[in-house]
Fold Sigma-54 factor interaction domain-containing protein.
Amino acid sequence: EEIIGRSQPMIEVMKKVGRVASSSADVLIYGETGTGKDLIARAIHQYSNRCNGPFIPVNCSAIPSELIEAELFGIGKQVATSVNQRIGKFQRANGGTIFLDEIGDLSLKMQPKLLRALDYKEIQRVGQSIEKVDVRVIAATNRSLLEATKEGIFRSDLYYRLSFIIDLPPLRERKGDIPLLANHFLKKYAKSVEQQRIQGFAPDVLKKFEKNRWNGNIRELEKVVEYATITCRSEYISDADLPSWQFDQTNLNPKNMQNTLENLIDSKTIKEASQKFERLFLERKFKGNNWNVQLTADEIGLTRQSL
C-alpha cells in the first residue's frame, strides 16, 4: 500500500514520519476513522532500523477486555485445564514493532500492564514470571486521549509516555489530494477488460468529490470509487455512476423535513413519538458517518456496545 498525497498537511506528516522512524521513540498516531493510521505505522516501521523485524498489528477494540492480556502477553504452562500455552503479540513482535490500533479502548485494568511494557520492556504471560522483550510500540486512536484522561478512562501517565504524536489530517482538510487518491483507487479497481477502458472521472465528479465532507475519509472515498468502477459503462465515470446513498441530498429538502415533523406529531403516544425520533436521529447520524458504528457512538455520546 502507498501513502499518497502532496498537500501541505501530508508533507508535514511525512516529515514527522521521517524524523521519528530513525529514532527509538514509541509513537501515538491520532486520526479519524479511515485516515490511514495503519499505513503511517507501517511506514515508520519500514524506515526504521527494525525494518527487518516483524510488524505485528493488533486491533484493541476487536478483542474482549477479558482476553486482551493473554492476546498481548501470552499464556504460561498449566495455567488452567484445557488452556494451551501460547506466546502473545509482544513476543511475536520481538526485534520489531507492535502496532496497537484503537489503544483508547484498552481497559483501565490493562493500561498499567502496557505502561510497564513501555517503560521497562518487560511483560508477564498469564501465570508466568516476567520476561524481557525488545519491541517498539506504535499506537493509534481516533479519539482524544487527552480528553479521555480528564474523564478518568485513560491513564495520564500512559498518555504522556506516548509523547511523540503524529496528527493525521482528515480528507476534508487535504482536498488537493482527493484527485490523486481517486485516480489511484481507479487504477486499483479497474482490472477487468471492460473496466480498463475507463480513462478517468468527469470534471463534475471530481468537483463533487472535493465538496463532499468524507466522514469516513480515505476508506470512504475508496469504496465510492470501487462502486463507480463497477457501475461505469463508458470511458469516464459520471455522476450517474456514483452511489445514490453517498450523495443523495433529498433528506435535507425542507418539504421532506416538514413531512417528517408532521409524522412525529401525529404519533398516538409519547413512546411511539420517541421511538420514531430515535430511529430518525440514529439513521441520520449513521448516514453522516458512513455507517461507522464507533464514529457514530463517539459523536452521540454512547458506547459502541450501547449503540
Notes: The two ends are 33 Å apart (CA to CA).
